[in-house]
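SEQUENCE-TO-STRUCTURE ENTRY
===========================

Subject: a protein chain together with a token-level encoding of how that chain folds.

Sequence line: the amino acid chain in single-letter code, read from start to end.

Question of interest: how does this chain fold, as expressed in backbone structure tokens?
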Amino acid sequence: MSGLLGTVVDAAIGWLVQSILDSFFTERMEAWTREIGLAEDVEKLKFQMRYVQMVLAAAKGRSIDNMPLAQSLDDLRGLIYDSEDVMDELDYYRLEQQIIEGKGCSAPTGTNLEGSYVSSSTLSSVVKLVCSATSQITDWISHGRKRKREEEGLAHCNMLPLEIKDSISKRINVIVNLLCSNGNSVKGVLQLENLRTMATSSKSQNIARDHYMTTSVPIESKVYGRDAERDKIIDLLIKGGSSDLNVLPVVGSGGVGKTTLVRYVYHAKRIKDHFDLLIWVCVSTNFDVVGLTLQILDHVCEDRPYEKKSSLNKLQEILQENIRNKRFLLVMDDMWEEKDRSGWIKLLAPLKSNKVKGCMVLATTRTKSVAKMIGTMDEITLSGLDEKEFWLFFKACAFRNDNREHHPSLQSIGKQIAKALKGFPLALQSVGALLSTEVSYQHWTTVRDKRKSLQGYDDDILPILKLSYDYLPVYLQRCFSYCSLYPEDYGFDGKELVHAWISQNFVQCKDPTIRLEETGHGYLEKLVDLGFFQKDGSHYVMHDLMHVLAGMVSSNECATIDGLKSGAIRASVRHSSIIIADYDKDEHVSNSSEKFDKILQKGSWHKLRTLMLFGRSSIHLSGPLRTLCNEAKCLRLLSVTGADISSIYNSSNLFHLRYISAYRVSNPAFRQALTRCYHLQVLDVGISGNLDVPTDMNNLVNLRHLIAHEKVHHAIDCVSNMTSLQELKFKVQNVGSFEIGQLQSMNELVSLGVSQLENVKTKEEAWAAMLTHKEYLETMFLSWENSSMSLQPEAAEDVLDGLQPHQNLKTLEITGYGGAISPTWLSSAFSVTSLRILHLEECREWQILSTHGMHSLRKLTLIRMLNLMELSVLDLST
């Protein structure tokens, strides 16, 4: 059964289409396909994908209430993925040709642009476009375009072997035909409905998103554990008033009890005595200034003089007149929108005109960015209830009038359930209601063990959290749902997670001056801001309930095999993880491989894009894992840090790989095969591990991150070809292609270490690195060997002068420098304006140092600077 049945057509498939069009259907690809004789096929695929876009635009918001429509949409999604795979393979051959010819390539085909879903002024115009395109496509597919073969550049057809060219051509044409037939199926369903019905359906979807409306009327018989927060807020509202309108934000995750707390405040006697007028407005996801003004007027005016008024100006005049000389408290519950501050300013305009001292706005939001935008006072951050109060609340919900609350076994299992709910009152209300239906040890144990299945209950917290998810833009939805692959309570490394997202083309950016990693980090911080992740020291964590939500919304495309547990694996799955902790415990159980084989047989893996292994790999599983990897020919990400990758992965499946994490690579032939992963962006062999660097490592022209021991970095010949690298530890050598000029074209570097600088003899040699052109470079380490005494101080000074970095540099460490004076750029007021950290060590001849030009400097470290006689430092505290 299709996982889409019962949902609505959303922007996700359209976003996927646009991202593929932006990434692969570029002028560069168009020119190359003309050379090899595939331009007509690629153009047909492009045209057909545009057609699918128009169909999906017409269907957006439509309820998927019948199986044929659901199945057709499922098939369309699969075909879009197939289109991406075939174009990615074609791009692989393009890269291979460029590398063989020695041209190199500094970036993957296309620029990752933030795909915008096809839009139109009216729904009918989209449908007309769909209908008008159909006949053209049908004619194209049936009869073909009569282009002269000369335009296809027959002279260049030998660039791609004939059998490969024919195979790709056939695959493209099969996909084109299927896209056409499935697109027509969806269009056929659409034509059964008139446009008005479809528009109403779209509108009803928006209403559905706002269905969770709140009111000021108390629905709790008792509020647990919020007295301190209530009293603090009341004090701030009463004592913090001024002649200006102040706004106090309350921030917290969905279900943590923000609305309950604000109701508690709203009905407090001190509040009622202090304010002349109390107003409650539920904002939700649609920040409509007119609608919100009408809600406020409902509280302010008894005779409803505004009923027949539609002008915002007139409504605000009525509001202004009716609040004059009244001290009011306005509660704005469940605020979401932070994109447009102008709407917020417009809403408050008539309220600010009231000259009574002490008027206040109390707003709740899940989003820190909203709190920052609207707040004039420090926000109140709400967390889950403390353990003691939460247990009292648990007993009230779960036992109700039952007198067995002191039963030891029920208390024990109850406390386990309560602990898992992490202090979230809304989750407890749902689970407590379920527990109270049968107060028995057996029932409660079942609830504990099957807590994840609670998502089916209407009153559960997950529908509330799902509302947050639905509000996310498509690219954040994809990033969040992908995280269901990781184990519960996993500590995410932010950089690793962003790299994984990039490998799947989830991260997209219109601005070519902004790195994808920066954009991806912005995505992660936005998910933190919205409560989907929490920051825990240097790592990120996901609340258990959020992990359940991620699993629920990703079930069509993501699957986790957890130990020996067997579950259904949908045919549509593209990403999978295997948690093998259970196998570790049973390492010597001979039938573990057989059990694992049976689990794998339940799934179809040939279109898998992600495979992650968590846990120490058992030798008994290498056979099944090898079978799985041989079948998975579309992998973008492969993480097998606990296994020897060369024993399980077929080195012929290299077309699509973007991310490899493998700490054991024992087979030399496999290491050599890695150099043909032309799309590879991340190679992680562990910073403590050593990899015998194969020849032609510099073929990895798209490699952005090489996570390995510095010896691996040092051993790469002709590293200048790897212009996408962002971190490099480079050792200057007098043999082969290891001169410092290799750095000249590596302008994507963010972190650079250069050692053995005694092998650079002149300023001109140093200038060849062109460090001033590396605008993304933030961290730089420069070192000379201490044992090198042959280099004259004047020569060292010239070399360091020639290593002037871009002014964006933030951290600089210099070790073993033999000169007596600072380089001119270090003391200049305009050269290192962004430098925050300066570390100088064992620069034994350095005599004078001034930091007056380093206005951003915050940390200065000097170690064994034996001849330093003059130090001039700015006040770092300013």
About this structure: The CA atoms of residues 384 and 422 lie 6 Å apart. The first helix runs from residue 12 to 24. The radius of gyration is 32 Å.
